[in-house]
Amino acid sequence: MLAVSWQPAFCEGKSDKPECVSQTAGRYDASHFTLHGLWPNKTSCGTNYGFCSSQPQQKNFCAYPEPAISPDTFQQLGQVMPSAAAGSCLQRHEWYKHGTCQSTWDANGYFQTAITLTQQFNASGPAAFMRANLGKQVRASDFYTAIDQGLGNNAHQRMKFTCTNGQLVDIYINLPATIPSQPDLRQLIGAAKPGFSSNCGNSFTVDSAGR
């Protein structure tokens, strides 16, 4: 599963986080979906699919060791995952909770794959739809149409949409069990199991940075 967030709406409820304090209308995460995580489902990890390594769970994400990723990967990650750039260390939590539940990639490969999939999601149309409607209330069906146009017929039927206070915050995207080294998100979604849910109702508000 690929989890992405609309950062302005996320920051409405987490305004004290460094990445939210520093957010501006001109920054990437004010106009693109951000990476929450890439979540492998390894059966041996149990139903929560988390913490498959021997690393103890930490409440403070920065208490985890930094995963071994290259400077270039970290720079790219800082754009799509603003917590990494701001120093609140979501990338550490994501690696030890989820990244360790797969054996395909090392930490660098895992994050490169997650970055690529997030970039492809943004480029496929959903981010443009949100940018065109900042501060507006939109019909959920119109957003689903924008997703389907970019990612394939009924692509939204393989996603979960989560709203808080009438604002879209998170999208959870079903993916197949195996992801190739050069992933194509449209093809992956087409191969994934259907599973739609939404608590957004017929419409939601597109939050903008600073509102």
Q: Describe it for me?
A:
By secondary structure, this protein is an alpha+beta fold. A hairpin with a 2-residue loop joins strand 4 (159-164) and strand 5. 36% of the residues lie in helices and 15% in strands. Helix 3 (71-80) packs parallel to helix 6. It starts with a strand and ends in a 6-residue tail after the last strand.
Keywords:
7 strands; 5-stranded mixed beta sheet; single chain; 211 residues; alpha+beta; globular; two-stranded antiparallel ribbon
Return residue spans where pLDDT drops below 50 for at least 5 consecutive residues: none
Strand content: 15-25%
Helix percent reads 25-40%
**By helix and strand content, what is the structural category?**
alpha+beta
Give the overall silhouette.
globular
**Total count of helical runs of at least 4 residues:** 9
**Biggest β-sheet: strands ordered side by side in the sheet:** 2-1-5-4-6
Radius of gyration: 16 Å
Largest sheet: 5 strands, mixed
Order of helices and strands: EHHEHHHHHEHEEHEE
- Mean pLDDT score, rounded? 94
Total DSSP E strands:
7
Question: What is this entry, summarized?
Answer:
With 211 residues, the protein is α+β, with helices and mostly antiparallel strands.
